[in-house]
Amino acid sequence: MSRLSREQVRSSDNPDIVGKPEQDILASFLFGEMFFIMNRILVKIFLVLMVITGVSAGRYFWPTNYLRSESVTINTKKNIDSSSLSQNDSGKKNSSVLPSLPADKAQNDNIPTKQQLMISTVINVGTTTYPLSIAPSTTIYDAMRQLQIDSRQPFLFSAKLFSGMGYFVDEINGIKNNPNTNQYWILFINGRSSAVGASAYFINEGDVINWKYVTPEF
């Protein structure tokens, strides 16, 4: 038997020598699987640690004032809602009580109406009397303009404006001031010649107003 055949017989008779390559392959495969599994485990551990670290850092660095402002805002909204509800409830209660109070009706009855505030007066032009009702703070000039619209008897007049003095009447019912005869329309209030124009005097309750076509005494 040759030398080569002898070595082959020896190697075939020894099982350790025959299975060594397969063992090496199996060991390499197992080592690779273990390395892959360990890597996945380490990656998961690393991610968990990162999440925990991030949460801890967020709690440490997050502005507490913002959280407090949110809580204050929420509490304020709750207080506003509760106060508005209480006001609505009280308003409903008061509204149910108000109609039954007779004092309010009595007070409303005492409030003067627009007609009660009007002033009743007359304007005498020569021998003709013109009654009318005017609002408070009405001038004689304004009352005469009202007469032109509301009077049942014909009433027309014209006036001239003098600076600093107001309007002075120069014609009533077609009769004009006449410098040739020295006759003019003179305003008398409560029996006295007025020192101001018709647009400067405000009529009061009880005033007696007369327009007289006379010769001035001045």
Properties at a glance:
6 helices; five-stranded mixed beta sheet; three-stranded antiparallel beta sheet; alpha+beta; disordered N terminus; about 220 residues; single chain
Q: What Rg do the Cα atoms give? A: 57 Å
Helix content: 40-55%
Average of pLDDT: 74
Main β sheet profile? 5 strands, mixed
Q: So what's the oligomer here?
A: single chain
How does this structure look, described?
- The protein has 218 residues and is an alpha+beta fold.
- Helices cover 53% and strands 20% of the residues.
- The chain has six helices and eight strands.
- The chain has helices at 3-13, 15-61, 64-97, 102-110, 114-117, 140-150, and strands at residues 119-125, 128-134, 157-162, 166-172, 175-176, 184-189, 192-193, 209-214.
- The chain has a five-stranded mixed sheet, with helices on one face. Strands 3-4-5 form a three-stranded antiparallel sheet, covered by helices on one side.
- Strand 4 and strand 5 (175-176) form a beta hairpin.
- It is rod-shaped and about 155 Å long.
- The protein starts with a helix and ends with a strand.
- The model is unreliable at 1-12, 14-18, 63-74 and 93-99 (pLDDT under 50).
